[in-house]
Amino acid sequence: CLQSRLLSHGIENAQKNIEGRNFGIRKNVLQYDDVMNTQRKVMYEERLKVLKGENVHEQILKYIPDYVEETVRAAVNVEDMPELWNETELNAALETKLLPEGTNYVTRERLEKWDYELAIKKITNKTVKEYEKKIEDIKAAGIDFYDVERRVLLMNVDRNWIDHIDAMDQLRDGIGYRAYAQKDPVVEYKIESGHMFDELIHFIREDTVRRIYQARVERTPERVQQAKPVE
Question: Quick one: pLDDT at residue 65?
Fold first, then answer.
């Protein structure tokens, strides 16, 4: 009868819609997994290098300029020319995070000669020079500070990667709601996960430099010396 044909047709259409929707969900899940697997591959390759005992010193040196720039930006208004910066506040920030206490590297005379790019370059060069000197002093005490660099970097990669996985899971759980705003959830997921991964890399680099710079030499009563990174 007409009614049964209409009912059968309605059920068939509903089934097709459900199957189509399920296929779309599975397709999205696979694309989400592809994004996560790509990020995982990058992190695991870097982690494997550290585990194999590769020297990461040159890598650490490449992280320093960004950390210097962030330290300067937190201490002064970089929209102003360096000649307007407060050298006392800037020196205090640098000596808290990067330079030995009492260095007083930034002087009024220097600020009046520098523009922003030159200021960052000069402060970075001074920071690297003091860092290399610190390493030589620690090596003279019989400590392999390059091993400290490896351990700090590995600790930061592991700890922050776990937090990143949790954050990605939360993003994935809520991204489907973007469809209500006429946005493609997969596209939105790729964009946001990319930003999150960039932030992860940035934080690992920044925190690695911070912890390594604050590492200190400890002498035990048995005269055993070790370099201890800050937790």
Answer: 95
- Give the pLDDT confidence score for residue 26 in this predicted structure: 53
More confident residue, 204 or 180: 204
What is the model's pTM? 0.75
Q: What is the 3-state secondary structure (H, E, C) of the chain?
A: CHHHHHHHHHHHHHHHHHHHHHHHHHHHHHHHHHHHHHHHHHHHHHHHHHHCCCCCHHHHHHHHHHHHHHHHHHHCCCCCCHHHCCHHHHHHHHHHHCCCCCCCCCCHHHHHHCCHHHHHHHHHHHHHHHHHHHHHHHHHCCCCHHHHHHHHHHHHHHHHHHHHHHHHHHHHHHHHHHHHHCCCHHHHHHHHHHHHHHHHHHHHHHHHHHHHHCCEEEECCCCCEEEECCC
Residues 6+ apart with CB under 8 A from 149: 56, 57, 60, 212
Write out pLDDT tens, residues 39-92: 999 888 888 888 888 889 999 999 999 999 999 999 999 999 999 999 999 999
Is residue 183 scored above 90 in pLDDT? no
CA distance 192 to 175: 10
